[in-house]
Design goal:
The chain has about 280 residues and is of the alpha/beta class. It is about 25% helix and about 25% strand. It has a single domain, classed as Ribokinase (UDP-N-acetylmuramoyl-L-alanine:D-glutamate ligase, 3-Layer(aba) Sandwich), CATH 3.40.1190. Helix 1 crosses helix 6 and helix 6 runs antiparallel to helix 7. The two termini are about 20 Å apart.
């Protein structure tokens, strides 16, 4: 059993399954719905715990009554919360998500962590002892930089979830061991995948991967490049697939090489896309 620390965004996700996203002035009746804790680091932590590990989310939750829904969901999936602002009285970030029934594509509106940035002083004492891996999703930059620096000094591997470029990532990249990014991750001055690989390599990151949905994963590992084929499935819901991929990667990289860990994570993410919501895939025996 490994222990992972997942640093970043904690939201409350309201997820609806519908024929399509609504147009202006249109009302839709959903075919299904679910409510869960969300955010890239949070969903990754749930996946990591599901695979038999201990997971802790380091983020802002607060004390508003709505946070009980977040707490109960994470407790149900055995994920611990290290709250950066436990007395924050305002509501947590809420994401409203429409999943299109025919394609599995999703439309999301969320306030993310723009109004819930915490300072280094909020980091709980002794958060890193006994941690085997750290994942950073880029939604708590000041806290993430401090955690990444300490993890690097203590030889704890650091993974970034590069879903999209966020200002401040450049200060974290020197401490990163594994940059696992999406095709939508474009640092300043980059508008092609090759430039992104060069940019990340310039920080000394030894292992870099770029996911492309159902298309092969491109990687650069210790100066060796290649691609990894991902499973082809009929997607029911792609929501959270990237987050689930990152959580699974954190599990497998602790016992596998880079390319095997990517392939195993792709298998888990593909499996999750065959179920509605971010949790139901875990209920299959």
């Amino acid at each position: 059993m490994y222990h992972g620390l997942f640093v970043g965004l904690v939201t409350l996700d309201l997820i609806y399954l519908a024929d399509s996203a609504p147009q202006n002035n249109q009302k839709l009746v959903a075919a299904d719905y679910t409510v869960a804790a969300g955010g890239p680091a949070t969903n990754a932590a749930v996946t990591f715990a599901h695979l038999g590990n201990q997971a802790t989310v380091l983020g802002v939750v607060g004390s508003h009554s709505m946070t009980q829904l977040i707490r109960s969901d994470l407790e149900n999936y055995r994920v611990a919360i290290a709250d950066l602002e436990p007395n924050k009285p305002t509501p947590p970030p809420v994401s409203s998500i429409i999943v299109t029934q025919a394609t599995g594509e999703r439309a999301v509106i969320s306030i993310n962590a723009a109004k819930t940035q915490a300072s280094n002083a909020s980091i709980p004492a002794n958060i890193l002892p006994n941690i085997d891996i750290v994942l950073i999703d880029g939604h708590q930059m000041a806290v993430s930089k401090a955690i990444a620096q300490t993890a690097k000094a203590e030889n704890i591997p650091v993974v970034i979830d590069g879903g999209s470029w966020k200002a401040g990532f450049e200060e974290i990249l020197p401490f990163v061991d594994y940059a696992v990014c999406s095709v939508n991750f474009y640092p300043p001055g980059c508008d092609a995948e090759e430039q992104v690989f060069d940019y990340l390599s310039s920080f000394g990151i030894p292992h870099i991967a770029m996911t492309h949905g159902e298309q092969p994963i491109a990687y650069l590992s210790s100066n060796r490049s290649g691609t990894i084929t991902v499973p082809q499935i009929a997607a029911i819901d792609t929501l959270g697939a990237g987050d689930i991929f990152h959580g699974a990667f954190c599990h497998y990289i602790l016992s596998e090489n880079f390319t095997n860990a990517l392939a195993q994570a792709a298998n888990i993410a593909a499996s999750s896309c065959q179920f509605f919501g971010t949790r139901r895939w875990m209920e299959v025996k």
